[in-house]
Here is the input.
Amino acid sequence: MECEKGEGRVQKVNCRRYKLEVEGIKIEKQDESYTTQQCPCCTKRKRVSSRIYKCKYGYERHRDIHDASNFFAKMVYGEISPFEFELKTTTYLRLA
Here is the structure.
């Protein structure tokens, strides 16, 4: 089964799901609600409008890393909670 270029989003997802299941890999849909908005330290929610998520209590992290760590913590612990890990320095490439 080949995924066609002109297919819609749902068809592409179903095609990828089928290909992964043929390989024995199962896909589960997960709830990602509030992973971008909620602070893992104080649990307050706020909308992020810049690259850095900052909480008034001192928590600060790049918004993509913030979202990913919150999502991971939600999947592992069942709730958004502090999740510490080390990252190498991130370099952003700007396209001209």
User: Anything to note?
Assistant: The radius of gyration is 17 Å. The helical segments are 9-22, 63-77. The mean pLDDT is 84.
